[in-house]
Amino acid sequence: IIQQFQEKLQDLQLSEEQNSNMNLLRFLRARDFKLNLAEDMLRKNLAWRKENDMDNIRNYQVPSHFQQDLPYDVVGFDSGNSPVFILP
């Protein structure tokens, strides 16, 4: 079924990570292995990622006024790799 899914997505030019069996399996499981629904979900996900420039999120610079209005500091990352903030 993963191979069938990959065939339906050939026009997308997915990266190696995006086209991995594990990644595609997430979408298939989320839609009970219904190829058309999984394809629609994946295409919408890719469109959202592009629209919100998610592939460059680590390069995001917080506006300077934000630091002045709400001082904070990133002190590291938790076990889930989420940032840990200190707020006064």
From TrEMBL:
GO terms for cellular component: cytoplasm. Residues 20-45 form the CRAL/TRIO N-terminal domain. This is CRAL/TRIO N-terminal domain-containing protein. It comes from Allacma fusca.
